[in-house]
């Protein structure tokens, strides 16, 4: 949508967010700059761990930034702001209120009188296509209808800025698409009171489909690595070759970064967060890339589409393959290495052996655990020992996740055993 | 009564517990109770003896007595609710208050309810000398102590687990603390709270009966009600009157269920967080009736409007800010100061009470009480084990037959609510008639009322047992003992533990009234801590009452910590 008005609605400068750890600050966001102008839909695209939801909440005034400043309409944000409405991934509807009451709730908090409240709520419900469901409770509605209530609740307070936190990711593909087009239609017809939309997503296609501008965020910590302007007019056609090329380019941008990084520091560190990737996914991706029609080299968007995986699902697996030495990623392509090909040819036992070797070489935490166990007289060590070590660098939750991941891989590669009841690592399976 | 799956309440609250604070909380509570009541006892002595009202055994006066009892229950429930909202909020919102309040609550629910009565009767009577009001308060307070703690725990736990996105929505709406409390936190905790209210109420009948007629030293309290009617019937050895009182109680419990809890549960169904409609929504004819009639709705409308306006007032709750301190070091310093303050306060209290008790108690008494406590412990353990042996297999068999379960479950819940002390006279007559050994034959009384918790929890567990597992077991021809050991028992274990915890808690309480029972002038006594407390209470021997109650509380706390909590944690982590 072409809009001449260029007044700035939101301006975030050098936003940082982190929390104190024993070994210094753990940064979630690092020096993020962001400007929202009237009339644009801006996308925040990143993987899990990129702090995109944190950034959204800082902008909404729900959590404070540790550094930097956020200005909304020229005033600094220091708490929840009137005029900013949010739509949640989980819908966040009050289950004990009907559709109408849920929509009215925001107005009620503003102190709007009952009569006006009812009128405005009904109008919003009407606008978003919910009429007939006014007296239903959220649990009686399908996911798509619930998110419509979420939209109506956000719109009814006449916000200037609408923040959306992965609003479509809890919906099935078809429902999500319907909701997206409905929202875009309303936006393009000028039927919405909002002046700007900021949408957080990990779905590249969704971002290209909806946004005028996309900010790409890196992970751990979140930084803006690139900003792209989407040149297409609405309504956009996903099958248009130019559209596909654009999506490919973003994939390339998102995969280029680790490659550039690899020049500086090679692979994972002991303190790195490890994503929870099942060994079946690892095997599955290797097999898919090895098989026809890819024969060892595949285009990431293509494979994502074939496997019905989104960035959040696919990238961690692909990256792990890279760390383990099974594959290389570059320019949006994934290519199997010698080990990767070998793995796909091997039988179960040989695969395990190869995986174990690669795991010990590529994941420092795995080799560290093995080493500690070797050094101990009884060859046993409690989970807490490693957890505390990790918690010096990672958040408690991330440390737990990382340990669970490495336990899962270590068990598969049979490099150590783990007793969940005793929370003990060991070298030999006693059973 | 409708079958409601027992939520494993307190699960995460228990994990949140800072255990070392219990060492502070335990003496703190006991000493505060003791000092508060004995302080009054001493300053206002000699007490004027309360004029005892004459209780008529005419069945025609039973409806009036029943009404008085019901009102007492309602008053206590109201008090519990207010206490819950205030205490739970404070514990959930203030980090420092939480550190003390949660362990206190945990200990409070371990102190035997009937133990409170011994103290509080004197306290309240001293508060309103020579008037019935004091005795009324004492009875209501006793019922309150049987109801409030688990409700508060449930509320506190709900407050701590409000979903983050809902909090963010309400912050986005810029709701004040007061508005958020009524708009989000109270509704969110409603299902758990109402379930716990039901449990409390069902436990409360036992105590209302026990607290209406009680003697502490030279104070004999007789409040017109079902409990005192029973006491009078026992004193006059009137078996017919006992029958009448059982009938009345049955009707009262059924009425409570139909007129209060069924509508409440049906109404509270909308507060569930689940995304899907429940398969069998709770129904209530009364609620349907109210919803359909316009007149009643109109009548309640002004009240509703008033409440809604109140809830909408942009008040700021006067709570200690939970914000971050200026520097971490400052915060830590304040924490330490707070801890020192609490510990010092506890120590000084404990010292005063110990010196008071020491004046009237010798080491011989301590030794005797400990022995008796072990006897009662043995009794509780054995009887819970026996009840489990009977009810677990039966519960499973019933639970696996949905149509049967539907019929039995309300009965089990009714039996759990029914105050077992009404049935004691029947047992006493039997024991006297057969010249049986009271040490053995009085024992079943302590689980008479509470065994049903095991039954209905096991039924609920077996009903919820996934059909796939049963089919898989059948498919692999798993039968007999292996089926019980590998399939069914692990499946119902979490439910069983919930039931057994409730049952054993109730059994400790019941020991106070069931180890020493009367029928006219026949007195039967079993050896045990319960009988000791009952005797010292009747004699008004405060140092020994304190010793008995403290020992029992200690045993209950240790019993919970060393047996139930590990089992509970195991069930939570491995069998769910």
From TrEMBL, chain A:
Domain of life the protein comes from: Bacteria
Molecular function as annotated in GO: ATP binding; ATP hydrolysis activity
Domain ABC transporter: 10-244
Key words of the record: ATP-binding, Cell membrane, Membrane, Nucleotide-binding, Transport
Gene3D superfamilies for the chain: P-loop containing nucleotide triphosphate hydrolases
KW Metal-binding (keyword) present: no
First and last residue of the signal peptide: none
Entry annotated with the keyword ATP-binding: yes
Pfam family, one: ABC_tran
Record-linked PANTHER family: ALIPHATIC SULFONATES IMPORT ATP-BINDING PROTEIN SSUB, TAURINE IMPORT ATP-BINDING PROTEIN-RELATED
Protein family: Belongs to the ABC transporter superfamily.
Name the UniProt record assigns to this protein: NitT/TauT family transport system ATP-binding protein
Organism from which the protein derives: Paludibacterium purpuratum
UniProt lineage: Bacteria, Pseudomonadati, Pseudomonadota, Betaproteobacteria, Neisseriales
From TrEMBL, chain B:
Pfam families on file: BPD_transp_1
Superkingdom field: Bacteria
PROSITE patterns: ABC_TM1
Transmembrane segments: 21-40, 70-92, 113-131, 137-156, 193-217, 237-256, 336-354, 366-399, 411-434, 440-466, 487-508, 545-564
Cellular component, GO annotation: plasma membrane
Entry keyword Membrane: yes
Keyword annotations of the record: Membrane, Transmembrane, Transmembrane helix, Transport
PANTHER family: BINDING-PROTEIN-DEPENDENT TRANSPORT SYSTEMS INNER MEMBRANE COMPONENT
UniProt family annotation: Belongs to the binding-protein-dependent transport system permease family.
The protein's name: NitT/TauT family transport system permease protein
Organism of derivation: Paludibacterium purpuratum
């Amino acid at each position: 949508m072409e809009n001449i008005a260029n007044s700035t609605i939101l301006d975030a400068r050098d936003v940082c967010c982190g929390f104190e750890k024993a070994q210094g600050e753990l940064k979630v966001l690092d020096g993020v700059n962001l400007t929202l102008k009237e009339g644009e839909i801006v996308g925040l695209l990143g993987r899990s761990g990129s702090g995109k939801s944190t950034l959204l909440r800082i902008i909404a005034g729900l959590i404070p930034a540790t550094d930097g400043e956020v200005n909304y309409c020229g005033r600094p944000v220091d708490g929840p702001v009137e005029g900013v409405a949010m739509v949640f991934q989980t819908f966040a509807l009050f289950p004990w209120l009907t559709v109408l009451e849920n929509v009215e709730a925001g107005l009620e908090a503003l102190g709007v009188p009952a009569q006006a409240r009812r009128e405005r709520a009904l109008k919003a419900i009407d606008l978003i296509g919910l009429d007939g469901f006014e007296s239903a409770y959220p649990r009686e509605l399908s996911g798509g209808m619930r998110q419509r209530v979420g939209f109506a609740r956000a719109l009814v307070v006449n916000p200037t800025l609408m923040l959306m936190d992965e609003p479509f990711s809890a919906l099935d593909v078809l429902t999500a698409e319907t909701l997206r087009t409905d929202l875009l239609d309303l936006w393009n017809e000028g039927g919405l009171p909002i002046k700007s939309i900021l949408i957080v997503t990990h779905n590249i296609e969704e971002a290209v489909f909806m946004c005028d501008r996309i900010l790409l965020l890196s992970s751990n910590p979140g930084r803006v690595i690139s900003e792209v302007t989407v040149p297409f007019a609405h309504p956009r056609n996903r099958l248009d070759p130019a559209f596909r090329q654009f999506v490919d380019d973003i994939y390339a941008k998102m995969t280029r970064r680790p490659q550039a990084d690899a020049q500086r520091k090679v692979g994972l560190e002991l303190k790195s967060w490890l994503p929870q990737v099942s060994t079946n996914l690892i095997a599955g991706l290797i097999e898919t890339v090895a098989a026809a029609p890819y024969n060892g080299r595949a285009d990431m968007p293509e494979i994502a589409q074939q496997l019905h995986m989104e960035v959040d699902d696919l990238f961690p697996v692909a990256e792990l393959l890279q760390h383990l030495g099974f594959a290389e990623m570059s320019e949006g392509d994934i290519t199997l290495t010698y080990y990767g090909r070998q793995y796909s040819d091997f039988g179960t036992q040989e695969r395990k052996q190869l995986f174990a070797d690669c795991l010990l070489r590529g994941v420092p935490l795995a080799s560290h655990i093995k080493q500690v166990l070797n050094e101990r007289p009884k060859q046993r060590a409690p989970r807490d020992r490693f957890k505390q070590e990790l918690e010096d660098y990672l958040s408690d939750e991330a440390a737990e996740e990382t340990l669970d991941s490495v336990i899962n891989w270590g068990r598969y590669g049979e490099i150590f055993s783990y007793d969940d009841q005793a929370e003990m690592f060991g070298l030999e399976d006693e059973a | 009564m409708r079958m409601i799956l027992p939520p494993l309440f307190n699960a995460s609250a228990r994990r949140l517990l800072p255990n070392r604070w219990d060492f502070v909380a335990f003496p703190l509570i006991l000493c505060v109770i003791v000092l508060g009541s004995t302080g009054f006892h001493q300053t206002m002595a000699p007490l004027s003896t309360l004029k005892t009202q004459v209780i008529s055994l005419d069945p025609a006066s039973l409806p009036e007595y029943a009404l008085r009892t019901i009102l007492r229950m309602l008053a206590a429930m109201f008090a519990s609710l207010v206490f819950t909202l205030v205490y739970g909020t404070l514990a959930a919102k203030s980090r420092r208050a939480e550190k003390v309040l949660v362990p206190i609550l945990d200990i409070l629910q371990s102190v035997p309810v009937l133990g409170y009565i011994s103290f509080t009767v004197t306290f309240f009577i001293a508060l309103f000398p020579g008037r019935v009001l004091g005795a009324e308060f004492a009875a209501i307070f006793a019922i309150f102590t049987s109801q409030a703690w688990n409700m508060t725990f449930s509320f506190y736990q709900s407050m701590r687990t409000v979903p983050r996105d809902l909090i963010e929505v309400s912050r986005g709406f810029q709701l004040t603390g007061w508005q958020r409390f009524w708009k989000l936190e109270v509704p969110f905790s409603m299902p758990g709270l109402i379930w716990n209210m039901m449990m409390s109420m069902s436990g409360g009948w036992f105590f209302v009966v026990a607290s209406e007629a009680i003697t502490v030293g030279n104070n004999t309290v007789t409040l017109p009600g079902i409990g005192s009617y029973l006491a009078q019937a026992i004193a006059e050895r009137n078996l017919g009157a006992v029958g009448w009182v059982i009938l009345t109680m049955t009707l009262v419990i059924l009425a409570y269920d139909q007129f209060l809890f069924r509508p409440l549960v049906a109404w509270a169904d909308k507060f569930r967080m689940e995304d899907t409609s429940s398969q069998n929504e709770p129904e209530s004819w009364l609620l349907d009736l109210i919803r359909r009639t316009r007149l009643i709705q109109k009548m309640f409308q002004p009240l509703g409007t008033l409440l809604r306006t109140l809830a909408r007032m942009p008040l700021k709750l006067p709570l200690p800010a939970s914000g971050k301190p200026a520097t971490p070091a400052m915060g830590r310093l304040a924490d330490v100061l707070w801890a020192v303050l609490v510990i010092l306060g506890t120590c000084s209290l404990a010292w005063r009470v110990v010196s008071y008790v020491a004046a009237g108690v010798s080491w011989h008494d301590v030794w005797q009480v400990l022995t008796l406590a072990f006897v009662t412990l043995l009794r509780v353990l054995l009887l819970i084990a026996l009840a489990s042996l009977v009810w677990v297999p039966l519960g499973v068999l019933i639970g696996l037959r949905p149509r049967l379960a539907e019929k039995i479950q309300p009965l089990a819940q009714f039996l759990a609510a029914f105050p077992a002390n009404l049935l004691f006279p029947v047992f006493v007559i039997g024991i006297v008639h057969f010249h049986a050994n009271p040490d053995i034959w009085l024992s079943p009384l302590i689980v008479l009322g509470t065994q049903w918790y095991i039954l209905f929890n096991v039924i609920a567990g077996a009903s919820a047992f996934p059909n796939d597992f049963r089919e898989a077991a059948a498919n692999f021809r798993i039968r007999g003992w292996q089926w019980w050991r590998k399939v069914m028992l692990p499946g119902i274990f979490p439910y069983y533990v919930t039931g057994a915890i409730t049952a054993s808690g109730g059994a400790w309480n019941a020991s106070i009234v069931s180890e020493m029972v009367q029928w006219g002038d026949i007195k039967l006594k079993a050896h045990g801590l319960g009988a000791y407390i009952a005797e010292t209470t009747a004699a008004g021997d405060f140092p020994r009452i304190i010793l008995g109650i403290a020992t029992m509380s200690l045993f209950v706390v240790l019993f919970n910590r060393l047996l139930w909590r590990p089992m509970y944690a195991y069930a939570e982590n491995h069998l769910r």
